[in-house]
Protein 1
Amino acid sequence: MGTMPEKKSNSVKRVFTLLLAYIMFCGAGGVVATGFLLPAVFGANSVIKTVTPSLKAEGIDFSITKLPQASTLYAADGSKMASFYTQNRIVVPLSEVSDIMQKAMVASEDRRFFQHSGVDVQGVLRAFVQTYVKGGSTQGGSSLSQQYVKNMLLAQAESDDDPIAAYHATEDTIARKLREMLIAVQLEKEYSKAEILQGYLNIAQFGTRNLYGVESAARRYFNKSAKDLNIVEAATITPITQNPSKYDPSIEANQPETERQRNIVLDLMLQEGYITQQEHDDAVKTPIKDTLHITSVDQGCMTAGDAAFFCSYVVKQIENSPEFGATKEDRQKLLNSGGLEIHTTMDVNANNAAMNAARQAIPVDDPSQFEMMIAAIRPGTGEVLGFGINRTYDATDAAKDDFRRTAVNFAVDQIDGGGTGFSVGSTWKPINLVAWMREGHSITEVLPAGNTLNERNEVPDYHANVTWNISNSGARGTAESPLQGLVNSHNTTQVAMLKVIGLTPILNAAADMGYHSATIADKDKSLLEQKVLYNPPMVIGTGVSASPLTMANVYATIAANGVQCTPIAITKVIDSTGKDIPVPSANCHQAIDPEIAQTVAYAMNQGVVTPSGAAHTAQLANGRKTFAKTGTNENEYLVTAGFTPEVAAFAIAGNAQGYHKEYDKKAGTYKTTDGFTNRTINGVFHDTWFGYMLATPAWVNFMNTYLDSAQIPINNDYGNPSAKYMGGASSSSSSGATSGTSGGATDGATASASPSASATDSAAPSADATVTVDPSQAESSAATNEQQQQ
């Protein structure tokens, strides 16, 4: 069989034809009409005609500010929280790159860069001879301008999600080379040499792990800026662009070859007169290990430490907000490649205090496996200050089988990366008081005891055939005012109020104060449209599905003289060009009458200002006036909420992840438990746990620590009741504690043969309460809180 000489001859002919085109094009100096596109040139080989449509420079944007860049999240004090990127790049002007770094790149990659017009003819001829005449390794002969074009074409293809364009930008063909040459010459007509060098230094890949641009390289390998790179450092990172995976010096196995390549660059720099012989010799003698200062290039919320849960909340805010793009995909792309500066509301002191308080209350690895969650917000602004969760943030698969780790922020709504919410017990009761006053009633008006409730006949706007039996701490209720009902946290008084005003005013008050369901399914519905919430047990905090942040925000409305704001996590976003991007607004507005807010605050304060109050454990340090409410829902959640005029916070302990396992020695197996009965938590055993035992100390710990670290002065002027709503009664008409009880139908109760389901909710043994509901008549009124995987 022959060797097909005709095919070989055609191949040689093609090579020389293309070489002729190369030379003519170079000699024309970019005058395309007289050289590169001559019909005679292309007529020499019909195959070339097929590539002419791609030999265009139209539609290419060489603006370096539009390159994919890393976005960075910052806390309120300007400290860095985390970075996000598809390409880890920080674009800098050439003036921010050291002169020696510029010279190292020119000496190594294109020593005639400042003489040619985009294509180095000598380089082309050298590459041709080496590759096709001598039969050596393939040589590109590409100028820096051509390399810049190649990288930009690839970047644009990736940005457009165009795999075909990406293939053509990197295919190993002469057609690609011709296209690059054409565009390179056109490029040099529009841009200066400095601008082209600047572009290349910013777009080139400088290592593995998506490391792009000279600034990111300088920070990665030497923990400094590109403007501070010295001779050795510049020579070290310059050759990485030729083979990022092979010459990345952060990989120890690469270091011998990286040092050899560095020395080659030093030789070239000496040859071009950029460094002296002494500088060269000193640099060559320097071990590469002695020059490196490797820094982490990990990205995302996993790198944010104790700020990780706040970080994930910010990411969800960006993904869910139309200000950042028309679709979720657009917003994610902006975050990962838009080079954004994202300034958040996170107060480092507040977040640290919340994380520490949560872990001190229930350690991360506590055998009880209960979660402690804290959310804090600044009243009157909507600014979320921080979160506390006794868990380690982990978005990997390893978290699935480790209760100590999770990527779910149970302090926020489901759509923001949280769970489906919690029943909040007695911390709901201040909402009832607001509704009562909005209906024109005094909080000192005496009401008869409400020991039973037939919803069909006794609730003005609710007609389910359900009968409720209510008691307080095992005893029947007594006639008292709504003020006393809040101070003593009596369920019977809440029901008596319900009989008078109905459920709709309570729902409206809750919505106006910032309450909404935590579940995604309820996100776009009003409370009146949410049948699962529209039932009487919510007046004692049962059957609602609130996130800790939502309840903290409800209390912030009371703390801000009735001004309600939508929680926000972002204060400012700047894009890669320095322009501001609009951010979600807090929409602060007067939601309830300031006199009502002050009166509710007064009522809340009554149980904590005196040492005899049952909620005296919520009193903050140094005599600071404290407004707090504690509670226990069923046997499942222990809660405390409260505020000062400067910060509102909500703390809750419970089974958020939906599973707790304890080892049964007798059976030799693990058993799943849910409630707080007969539990040892953080080394302490109680047969019955109440909110004041666990949630209150965590809340107080957070509040005292944050107020002290933030150096917030004591302001005891808030909480002045209005005579209009006090009915002329003196402040001494109420006594006791705001700490108390609430209970209701068992969480997730369904119809069954059992005659009743009962629950207790208390902040102190003397204030314990039970509520009995017939589940065979009642519709399920509670939402379980299941872990939501991201």
Note: The chain has 25 helices and 24 strands.
Protein 2
Amino acid sequence: MSVVAVNQVGYLLSGPKRATLATAAVEPLTWRLADDRGRIVADGTTAPHGTDISSGQNVHTIDFSTHQRPGTGFTLTADGATSHPFRIGTGLYRPLLTDAMRFFYCQRSGIEIREDLRPGYGRPAGHLGDRDVPCAPDAGDHRLDVRGGWYDAGDQGKYVVNGGITVWQLLHAFEHRGGLDQLPLDLPESGNGVPDLLNEVRWELDFLLRMRAPSGLVHHKMHDLEWTGLPTLPHLDPQPRVLRPVSTAATLNLAAVAAQASRIYRKYDADYADRLLAAARDAFTAAGTHPIRYAPVADTIGGGPYDDDDVGDEFYWAAVELFLTTGEPEYADAVTASPLHTADVFGTYAFDWAATAAAARLALALTPNELPGLDDVRASVVAGADRYLAIQRAHPYAVAYAPPGNQWHWGSNSMVLNNLVVLAVAYDLTGEARYRDGVLEGLDYILGRNALNLSYVTGHGTDYAENQHSRWYAHQLDPSLPHPPKGTLAGGPNSGLQDEVAQARLAGRVGQFCYVDDIRSWSTNELTINWNAPLVWIAAFVTELG
């Protein structure tokens, strides 16, 4: 059975417009584009590609980029198959940006989620006891007030390294993408004279500041003593909460994002900016003077380990952000002395919570500064973008991601999006349309132009993921509970198939087919704050274009 996979949200008038046809046919086929009244407004022939290794399908490309008339309800037909409907026009992605960013309010811990602000998602404050949390026996003998912050993912833990990269990416978008200072998010703080995005991010920043131990190092995470079952609403969680040990990675995450935040918040709250910068300096010093502390890989009870046995990239990242904020020689020297400063940091995927060197490189490339050798820094970003663009152009589904051995990673959708961030920054640096078009076509994959013919963003498209792994967005298990809110990104194909549902239903599947929209498939279908952050970044970029 043939399938025509399209971006189910739509295509910008001035951007590329392509779809992928999965078919048994090997010769070119006729395609037709119809409007909402069924009238044929364009036609042509497909371009066969042969077998796509990421899906095992025989595929063709449909290119209808020459059609530049706006409208709704367009469909593509080829080989007897008709696509989901889509729009062509301007302003298509503003709702995606708003929803992707509004997601974070529903992830807040320690505060009531107001029904009037998020109809259908109101709930009492969760984990008010986080105001007084003890250390686990191997983490110290003190107690901390670690209230607030965002629940990390489908569980109710709070993790500094995941919170750190999420804060960094949202603030990087705010600093370098237009219009985010005017984005309305309907928050309790709205109208206080501070942009809503910064109001939301501060909820997490304040939590990160509270995770500092008396030593000056930062606790890696805090979560339940034991895993809770599905579903469990935050305010009904019966488990005791504990602080897990400090880590160098967590300490440097605080140094990086507190330094970055201090320059961004200074316009709105100088005292807070001073406090952030002092915390960043202290954390960087503490990380450099204490012995390296790694998060233990076996720390998997009640929360994920988020283990990382290489913190050279975190040292580089923190030094970069401190230099960009202060301009001080001490931090400039730390940047240029790092082996990562001249290394190729753009691998299979650009960056995530455990690999932050490319994030540092992007910050250096875009944020005004006087570091010697900036031309080389920017050239390295463009070279990384060229690599991702070449991968995308060779891919029948236009995916800028090609994992070794076709073994797709956990959270692959975020990796696709973060590679698109590199393309977008290359466009910022060069103005070359090929990078802009690469971002647009790469987003097509997330929104439905994929082997599953599925939008991975809840509420966006015709057929979309809506049963992401979560303890409180659990409609699949309890109809009285909601699905995840609009704008929630699913993790996406994961060849590892670590959970039992994936193992039972997806064994033997290839690449793109290693995904199931089931709440119990935590390895393919979880939601996380650090996966929604690149969705916000890319949605902000394409909203500017549109």
Note: Residues 3-89 form a domain with the Immunoglobulin-like fold (CATH 2.60.40.10).
Protein 3
Amino acid sequence: MPSIHALPFDDASIRLWAQADPRATNWPVVYTLEGGSEVYVGETLNMAARARQHLANGERARLERAHVVVDETFHKSACLDLESYLIRLFSGDAARTVLNRNTGIVNAEYYQRPQYQAKFDAIFEELRSRGLFTRSIPEIRNSDLFKLSPFKALTDDQAAATVDIVESLFHDIEAGIESTSIVQGNPGTGKTIVAIYLVKLLADIASQDRDEEPTGESVFDDFFTHGHRDLLASPRIGLVIPQQSLRASIRRVFEHTPNLDPAMVLSPFQVGHSLERFDVLVVDEAHRLSQRAAQAVGVQTRDFRLITERLFGADDHGRTQLDWIEAQADHRILMLDELQSVRPADLPASVVGPLVARAEADARVHRLATQMRVAAGSDYVAYIRDVLSGEDERPQRPPLGEYDLRFFEDASAMRAEILQRDEEVGLSRLLAGYAWKWRSNKDRAAPDIELDGLSLQWNRTATEWIRSKTSRDEVGSIHTVQGYDLNYAGVLIGRDLGWDAERGRVVFRREHYFDARGKANNNIRGISYSDEDLRTFVLNIYAVLLTRGMLGTYVHVVDPELRAALRPYFSSD
């Protein structure tokens, strides 16, 4: 069992320990330095020497106590792994501000790693008993602060994309030219992770803390130089999040992260209103940027016109929020998946297609393929889209491993199972397409969804619904779950979708679709949307809902004919 030495973080205490234990100067260890609401996690072969370096640094010299983890079986790989593990858990716990950079997080395999990871959990529990953590590992892992933290071990394709983007960015800054880079990927490939990681990385490069020297073990070490810092002198960096709910969650993450600030997390309207240009804008879910159309509230429809007039000199109805981004920032980095556009007001294909083509011509398109969310892998995401589109021959169900994909004939039985999963692992919610009227918006006691003996309401809050106290008893819509992870998702496919037996395909039924802005014509631009147009958006909605569950997805289809048609795809029988 590892031992954890607790001692005051000062030169005299470190020297006394080094005199009593030779491992203080020649043994691989992992340590935490903590004081007040701050913590730093590190690993080293010479704790005494590394402590002296920290004590010479103004930021870390104010930390008060050290906890040094020593184990007879530790080696460099295990220490790097434990260091990364503790950093991620401290970040998700949010009781303390993590002072580390995010470039040292690793996820490398090594001999007997599972046995070491079992030790890591015991180390966590010991540190928790000493007051360093406030929540359990499952509680931390289920939190948005953990899932949206910039302290992540990137996959190979995420790391490659990030390196290429940063290299190109510095080249363009030095050359004095503007640029647009695009990151594409299916749901669950980690576009939001890359966006947050990028902002943290750039902010750290720009910071004046020069104590933490590159280790030579990170692919990003070459960017931590005086020259790169000078190129990012006093930068204006922003992260644009079109969805209100996700924006609020990421602001909380930035509030607890050094070199980041909640004010860096922006809505498109905040970008448009800004009187100062940005050096770099990273845009998550860029496909959700809006074209000119009636907005959620009247003041935003007015502001759309005012911003366009200010930026371009006239109220050009062809301008989109993407034009605002391009006008307000020298460098744009866009996370994009046009198959997740869910409303007619989202960026149209006539804008997205040429945008991607231009970026490809400049070798500025980076594609993510590794599936990080759904345990069943990327084949599951493609399978869901093929099942819903019905354009090709019947897709073959891919191997799903232990992924829990189930089909329910009865909605109440599905809800009971979702509640059971929530008791077991948390983060299990009911979701639905917008196929029921939002009656409770005007009458707080009115049920919205009445089905198979159930009487349920839509989400009562549009901001961070998944974490709300009432979410277990409610049903989430696309507007509250896009961009989030669940452990289990129970999806109600409503009567907005039906089955055309003659054509053998899923069809859209406008009369059962109750998202007013989701089916409204664009009167400002004179665009009308056919049922086939809206079918595309609604299928995108269900594809998003059906790919929220990391461990499992449960499905109930309301329309009897569609239920019979889809049953073979989702049932394990």
Note: The mean pLDDT is 93.
